[in-house]
Amino acid sequence: MSAHLLALKLDEAQRLNPAFAALIGPTPKPDLSLADWLASLDGGDLDRLKFSRIELEAHLLALIAEAEGFRTPVTRLRELRILGGRDKTGGAENLDLVLRPGAIVSVVGPTGSGKSRFLGDIECLAQGDTPSGRRILIDGEIPDPARRWAASGKLVAQLSQNMNFVVDLTVGDFIEMHAECRAVDAPEQVAAEVIACANRLAGEKFSANISLTQLSGGQSRALMIADVALLSSSPIVLIDEIENAGINRRQALDLLVASDKIVLMSTHDPILALHAQKRIVIAAGAVAQVIETSATERAHLAALEHYDRLMSDLRETLRHGARLETLPPQFSPFG
Amino acid sequence: MRVITVAGPPSVGKTALILKTAKTLGDDGQKLAVVKFDCLSTDDDLLYRRAGIAVAAGLAGSVCPDHYFVSNIDDCLQWAESLGADLLIAESAGLCNRCSPHVQGALAVCVVDNLSGVHTPKKIGPMLKMADVVAITKGDIVSQAEREVFAHNVWRANPQARIVAFNGLTGQGAGELAFAMRGAPDLETLEGRRLRFPMPSAICSYCIGETCIGENHQRGNVRKMRFPEVLA
């Protein structure tokens, strides 16, 4: 394996992985083999590269060997199974829940009831070793420790209201950079799609040339959701209380489901809760109920969304400096 | 004794990471000793003491912190041995990005945070490039996209490392890090082992106390900058 890689010409290796090119910099002899090039380095070269010769060789071989690896999604998932543990008093949690790609599940419960623990257990693929004692099976199997830790962190994408963009780049440059990490074939094109999609979700439009840190809260959230749906490698998305995010929530959910993610959202918003096919009710550290959204509940969505629109119209009215001397008739308590 | 070096830029959350991981290791019945290396002052030994962890603090003072570290690390192991500890964690802060405390044969952990910007992984030298595990903290406050780009850039800088997403507030990631630490090689002594990366070639007049600026005061190993040509 390594002998075959060491025989690669420098320019071939550079083409395989841009990181390789970035690391070794311009080289006067691109048709030198990797082995010969390594042998030609003197102490000064190694000092400049900040590596010992052995470390440099191992490092470059790993870059080449894995160049193909990051083209393929890290984790594919057919099925996620959550087996109950115990509640805060040590009582058994009666739970055996199977989720498949395309599922939307809401997680509801009072503050401090254990919603974050539930989402955290999924993220680290708990095996009875977290305070809740829950176990998570992937495609029906207990992941062995090596696979468990290789998958953790890559399995779950998170979206929450605490999150911000901190990097000082334009929207276009950054999303392109993310696309390059995923080794998509046309990063510019994909970045343009992500930005167009975010603009459909956000109330206010923005261009690719604006700096990420200048985006409003709603625009940031819209961009994060579009990016997770179209560019993130993670098959599971955890959403933490995005109800006030100033985005089209229904479109956001549709987008995530269309990209075959399993979506779990912790929420207090009746509209988001009823959009889910199931809702998990958490109390005292354990899942107390798993409720299928009924047809009647779903039928209420139209009414709830109607009132939601009325409220957001009032918000817009205020925003534009108008007064609210008269309310729409639907708001009259004497209806 | 399993020896683990933990290094990273200031304020990335090294101490929080060790404290949370120590809890997981303690629950597994592992006895831990921590040595905190710092430059001028540290209060972190109090945090460890409060958590019931055996701790020693070493301040480099006027000596280069990396030289101080390497001159004392084997004594740290002997101290931890005398306590009957299963693991020794050497936490070093205040190192420059040029250096690295990682020792061949001991588990090397580098801690970096998502807030430092997506280009940071390639600016940190052997501390990151030669680590076995790179823990990335503060992921809960940046976007998913930035987390993925940051982790990818860490991978580019060190494709051999295991990358762990760590939340110092909740301890998310502690299970994985504890797993890596328990799998660290068992060592009796560090004597004769080598640093993974040599310290800077030095000994100039400033190493030995010179403070005055100027050509006349520069002796020994001095390297001068090259500037772009000024066009007339």
UniProtKB/TrEMBL annotation, chain A:
InterPro entries: AAA+_ATPase (IPR003593), ABC_transporter-like_ATP-bd (IPR003439), ABC_transporter-like_CS (IPR017871), P-loop_NTPase (IPR027417). GO terms for molecular function: ATP binding; ATP hydrolysis activity. SMART domains: AAA. Keywords: ATP-binding, Nucleotide-binding, Transport. Belongs to the ABC transporter superfamily. This is ABC transporter.
From TrEMBL, chain B:
It holds the Pfam family cobW. InterPro entries: CobW/HypB/UreG_nucleotide-bd, Hyd_mat_HypB, P-loop_NTPase. GO terms for biological process: protein maturation. It comes from the Bacteria. SUPFAM superfamilies: P-loop containing nucleoside triphosphate hydrolases. Residues 3-164 form the CobW/HypB/UreG nucleotide-binding domain. GO terms for molecular function: GTPase activity; nickel cation binding; zinc ion binding. This is Hydrogenase maturation factor HypB. It comes from Rhodoblastus sphagnicola.
